[in-house]
Structure formats: C-alpha cells, structure tokens
Amino acid sequence: MSGFLLAAMLAACGGGGGGAAPPPVATVPPVVAPTVPAQPDLAQPNLAYPIPGSLWSAPVANLPTSGNYIYLQSTSGDYIGQGRTYLYTQANAAMTFNIDTLGVEARVAANENWNGRFRLPKAAGALQAGYFKELTRAAFSDPAVGGLDWSGEGRGCNTIKGWVVIDNIVQTGGMLSALDMRFEQYCEGGGPPLRGQVHWTRANADNVTPPQPAPIPAGLWKVMPSAAMAAGNYFYLEGGFGNFVTGGRTYSYDQTNAAFRIRADGSHLIVGIAGNENWNGDFQGMGGMPQLTVGYYADLKRYPFHNPVLGGMDWDGESRGCNRLDGWFAVDSVRYSGSTLTAIDLRFEQLCENDAAPLRGQLHWRADDSTTAPGPQAVPAGLWSPGASFVPPAGNYVYLVSEPGDYIGGGFTQLLTQDATPFLVDRSLTAALRIGVGGHEGNFVGMSSLSQLQPGYYGNLQGYPFHNVMRGGLSWNSPGRACNTLEGWFVVDRVSYSMGQLTAIDLRFEQYCGRDTAALRGVIHWAR
After folding, report:
1. Per-chain mean pLDDT for the chain
2. 285 contacts: CB under 8 Å, gap ≥ 6
3. Residue 14, pLDDT score
4. Which residue, 220, 230, 214, is CA-closest to 364?
5. Are 346 and 283 in contact (CB under 8 A)?
6. What does the DSSP 8-state code read for residue 156?
7. Per residue in 219-248, pLDDT tens?
8. CB contact at 8 A, 70 and 197
9. C-alpha span between 351 and 359 (Å, rounded)
C-alpha cells in the first residue's frame, strides 16, 4: 500500500502521530414520546370516566343551603316522575341509604315513595367517585358495565339507559358516612329523562329535631255545640252530599248507643265505634313523637301508606273507605298516665280522591266515663201479640206468623210444640236466649250492660251476631233460610233464672228481613 493511502486512512480514523485533533462530534439526545393522560378503554366500559364539566347538576337556587336532600327533576313525558319536580329533605321525608361493595340503594318515604339502585362496574372494585355511563337497568345489568334504576309510585322502567356520577363518597367502618351523587335515566332506551341529585351525610341524619305539630289555626272546623252531647263520651261524624264514606249522612254516638274502643300505641291513636254502624279510625303522629301532643297535624295522607315524617290518618267503615286521601287532625287536649292514654279531644277532616265533600268528625273521650246503655224499656201499647183466636197449647211451644212476602216464614203460620219436636235451649248464656226447634233457630240478645234478660221492650235491633251490642240483637232462621240483614224487636214478658241459669221465659218478637216489608212474628213459651 502506498504511503499516501496509509496516511489518508489514519487521518480518517483520527489516528496518526502528533497531527492536529479533529473537531468534536455533536451528541443527539434520544427521542422521548410526550406524556399523554391515561384514557379509559372505551371497548371495556368498566372504569370510571373523567367527569365532564358540562354534565347535568341540579339548579343551585332550587336546593336547600344545609341538611340532607334528594332532588328529582322529571322532564315532561318522563313516565317515572310524571314531568314533576320533587325536593325531599329531612323535614318532609325519611331517606335511607344502604351500600355494599359496588352498590348503593336509596329509599325515600314521603308523600311519594321511591326506590333507587346504583351498581358500579365490576372492575371498579369498590364504591368510588367517578362518572359511570352506558348503564342499564340494575337488576339485569352486565356486571362489567354496571346499572341504575329509579322507580316508585307503582311506576318503573322495563329497560334503562343512563349514567351515574359519584361526586363524593365517604365510608367509615363499612358504613356510609357521606354521599354526593347525580344520575340520569331514560326509560325504554330513550325519551325524556329523569334526573336526580343526592346530598347526604350521616352527621346530618343523626342531627334531626323531631317535628312537632303546628298551632291549631283559628276558625278550624269544629262541631256545633248543639250537635255535641251534653256530657260523657261522644263521637260526631258528618259528611256532606257526595261524601263516599258517610253517604252524605250525619251520625252521633255516645256510650248509650255505641261501644267505644280507644287506645294509643305511641303516637298512633286507634279508634273504634261500634253502634248501629261500625267505624274505624287511625291517627298517626309525626315520626319520632313518643305520644300525641296538642296541635295541628296537616298535609296528611292515608294511614298506613302515609308520609312517616308528617304522620297520617284514615277513617273508614260500613265497607267504605278511601284509596287515597288528604286530611288533617287537631288534638285539642290529651292526657296520658305513663304510656296509657286516659283522655283526648280530637277533630279531623279527610277528603277521598273522588269526594265532592269532606268527611269531618269529632271525638271527646275520657277513660273514666262510666255511662252504660239503659236496660229494656216499658212495653209500648198496642205491640203485636197473637190474636184472640190463638189458643196456647199445653207445654212448651213456638208460634210463628209470617206475612205474605216474608222470606223466612214463607207467608205461613206454624205451631211447633214439644210433643212434636225437641226444644234445645242454651241456658247458660248471659242476657240472651238461644233456642232450636224443628230446624228453626232463634237468637235474642240483650244489652251488653245486662247480666240476665229482664222483662221489657228491646227495640231498634239489628241481626245477631252483627248487632249493636249496646242495644242487643235478634235473628230467627228457618230451615235453609236466613237474613243477611234485619231489623226488629223483642219483648220479654216473663223470665226467671236459678243459680245463674235460665229456667223459664215468655218472649214475643217481630223481624223484617233485608228489604222485606212483610214481617215474621212469633211467640216463645218455654219452661224447664
């Protein structure tokens, strides 16, 4: 190799003797990709998405400034919320929340009742803040996607699409301590949405002052003094024309014509009136009240489907009642001995869903009222007796006279004697006669205040055993025939007892079966 070529090669390689050093070579830094924020895998919608800033929130002006709340905004055409807006706080609703690893369940008991279920995707691993979308109906949702469902008032979606945002959630010892959440759901995959927002903390839930009744408004309905009884316990009931429960009638009861059943269970008053008609009432105070107190209980719905925070009420009877109602009651005075109610004055008003006029009532009751029903009255002159042509046979007998058109007797006259058929008499009854003869059965019951039947007139009676116990009752059934309802009277002309058991009786009676205008009359003569 020539010297020229060798020198060139050495120069190119930087080698060679003491010649000048070549210029430095510039260093190029390695290429590094820019940092990109992590994004959810849209092919697997099982992670919390970043919360979009434009996502729906409840209008701040419509929310309370403190305390727990649930706000529902139903768009016109939404089936669940019926296009209305609802705001629930601890002053008008009971709100409860339960949680598990991935789920939140909410319940609202108010003038309306709601249930909410929210399930996070399985990959979330635990309840956490975030935005979860493409959710379907919770009960049938894919665990990888999650679900939601808000329903109530008898309305729910078959299918759902929607989203949930958990803005904040705090758990303490496996218990929910705080929750801020929003949601939006579309029934049947589209249509107008229902939106909701929740703010709840356990501290707020535990720091609630039990509600109290309001002062009684001046001018509130009260029974006219002339309609109230002068003394003793009474109940007065009136319903205007078009009132379904009363049929537009007015009723008045005291302890001479009706049995009063009054008791209290905490702040729940139960009233029963058993007279010629039978009535039942429930008056429930506000949630958290240990006993009823004087005041005005308003904005009430039907017990037991009422708002537990506000209380409820219901008056029904004679097989008539409300499906839904609005009403109030006022406690004018009340006394307890420990937990036992001893006295109360209460008035109320209720309006059934289709009533044209309200039902109103007033109760005055004292536990120590000893008024009882009077005994039998003097026998009215001219009351029916067998005609002069009737000759009583010897021994025990039953003589029946049925007018044409009477269902029980068929329009026939019958004489049943002990010679022809056995007489079966229950001698041990208290103030009552039960007799069976020839397939017939008779029941004659005196007032509940009696220990034995006494001579006299027992009038204005209903059919045994559905009679007014304060007045007594009767029924006479023939073979295969009985009255559903009846009216009548009986007279005890003579009666005797020995050692508390019946030994002899002479009794006559008259009854009208149902709507019959024809009477069945009879005479009973029996001696042991």
Report:
1. 90
2. 213, 266, 267, 268, 291, 292, 293, 297, 311
3. 42
4. 230
5. yes
6. -
7. 999 997 665 566 799 999 999 999 999 999
8. yes
9. 6
